[in-house]
Amino acid sequence: xxxxxxxKVMTDNPKKLAxxxxxxNLPSTLRxxxxxxxxxxxxxxxxxxxxxxxNNLQDPNNKNLVNCDEKxxxxxxxKPQVELTELPTLIKLHFPKQPR
Length: 100
Description:
CATH class: Mainly Alpha
GO cellular component, one term: nucleus
Shape: globular
Order of helices and strands: HHEHEHEHEH
Largest sheet: 2 strands, antiparallel
Structural class: mainly alpha
Organism: Solanum lycopersicum
CATH architecture: Orthogonal Bundle
Radius of gyration: 15 Å
Protein name: DM2 domain-containing protein
Protein backbone atom coordinates (compact mmCIF):
# COMPACT_ATOMS: atom_id res chain seq x y z
CA UNK A 1 0.00 0.00 0.00
CA UNK A 2 1.44 3.35 -1.04
CA UNK A 3 1.28 6.46 1.14
CA UNK A 4 -1.25 9.06 0.02
CA UNK A 5 1.48 11.59 -0.85
CA UNK A 6 3.25 9.08 -3.11
CA UNK A 7 0.00 8.29 -4.95
CA LYS A 8 -0.57 12.00 -5.51
CA VAL A 9 2.96 12.50 -6.90
CA MET A 10 2.56 9.50 -9.21
CA THR A 11 -0.75 10.72 -10.62
CA ASP A 12 0.12 14.42 -10.78
CA ASN A 13 3.61 14.17 -12.24
CA PRO A 14 4.85 10.76 -13.38
CA LYS A 15 8.06 12.28 -14.84
CA LYS A 16 9.10 13.49 -11.39
CA LEU A 17 8.83 9.95 -10.03
CA ALA A 18 10.65 8.57 -13.06
CA UNK A 19 13.59 10.90 -12.37
CA UNK A 20 13.93 9.35 -8.92
CA UNK A 21 13.70 5.70 -9.91
CA UNK A 22 15.25 5.53 -13.40
CA UNK A 23 18.58 3.70 -13.56
CA UNK A 24 21.47 5.83 -14.77
CA ASN A 25 25.17 5.24 -15.34
CA LEU A 26 27.07 6.61 -12.38
CA PRO A 27 30.06 8.96 -12.55
CA SER A 28 33.33 7.50 -11.27
CA THR A 29 33.15 9.06 -7.79
CA LEU A 30 29.74 7.57 -7.12
CA ARG A 31 30.63 4.30 -8.81
CA UNK A 32 33.48 3.75 -6.34
CA UNK A 33 31.30 4.66 -3.35
CA UNK A 34 28.29 2.56 -4.41
CA UNK A 35 30.22 -0.41 -5.74
CA UNK A 36 28.02 -0.62 -8.84
CA UNK A 37 27.87 1.09 -12.20
CA UNK A 38 24.14 1.87 -12.37
CA UNK A 39 21.56 2.94 -9.83
CA UNK A 40 18.67 5.35 -9.39
CA UNK A 41 18.88 8.65 -7.57
CA UNK A 42 16.67 7.23 -4.84
CA UNK A 43 18.90 4.17 -4.53
CA UNK A 44 21.95 6.38 -4.23
CA UNK A 45 20.34 8.45 -1.48
CA UNK A 46 19.39 5.28 0.41
CA UNK A 47 22.96 3.97 0.17
CA UNK A 48 24.45 7.26 1.40
CA UNK A 49 21.98 7.36 4.29
CA UNK A 50 22.72 3.75 5.30
CA UNK A 51 26.48 4.51 5.13
CA UNK A 52 25.96 7.47 7.47
CA UNK A 53 24.01 5.31 9.93
CA UNK A 54 26.42 2.33 9.75
CA ASN A 55 29.44 4.52 10.48
CA ASN A 56 27.76 6.75 13.10
CA LEU A 57 28.52 9.92 11.16
CA GLN A 58 25.66 11.98 12.58
CA ASP A 59 26.85 14.62 15.02
CA PRO A 60 25.96 13.39 18.54
CA ASN A 61 25.12 16.93 19.70
CA ASN A 62 23.02 17.88 16.67
CA LYS A 63 21.42 15.00 14.76
CA ASN A 64 20.70 17.33 11.82
CA LEU A 65 24.41 17.47 10.98
CA VAL A 66 26.55 14.80 9.33
CA ASN A 67 30.30 14.72 9.93
CA CYS A 68 31.79 13.40 6.69
CA ASP A 69 34.65 10.92 6.64
CA GLU A 70 37.06 10.81 3.69
CA LYS A 71 34.93 8.35 1.69
CA UNK A 72 31.74 10.37 2.13
CA UNK A 73 33.52 13.64 1.29
CA UNK A 74 34.14 12.35 -2.24
CA UNK A 75 30.39 12.05 -2.79
CA UNK A 76 29.40 15.26 -0.98
CA UNK A 77 31.76 17.55 -2.88
CA UNK A 78 34.49 17.67 -0.23
CA LYS A 79 32.39 19.24 2.51
CA PRO A 80 33.55 18.26 6.03
CA GLN A 81 30.06 18.66 7.50
CA VAL A 82 26.62 18.89 5.89
CA GLU A 83 23.07 19.31 7.10
CA LEU A 84 20.61 16.50 6.46
CA THR A 85 18.48 18.86 4.38
CA GLU A 86 21.43 19.37 1.99
CA LEU A 87 21.92 15.66 1.24
CA PRO A 88 19.32 15.29 -1.55
CA THR A 89 20.62 18.43 -3.28
CA LEU A 90 24.25 17.32 -3.13
CA ILE A 91 23.39 13.85 -4.43
CA LYS A 92 21.23 15.30 -7.19
CA LEU A 93 24.28 17.18 -8.55
CA HIS A 94 25.78 13.82 -9.58
CA PHE A 95 22.71 13.07 -11.75
CA PRO A 96 22.60 15.57 -14.62
CA LYS A 97 19.23 16.19 -16.19
CA GLN A 98 18.85 14.11 -19.32
CA PRO A 99 16.62 15.11 -22.24
CA ARG A 100 13.60 12.91 -22.77
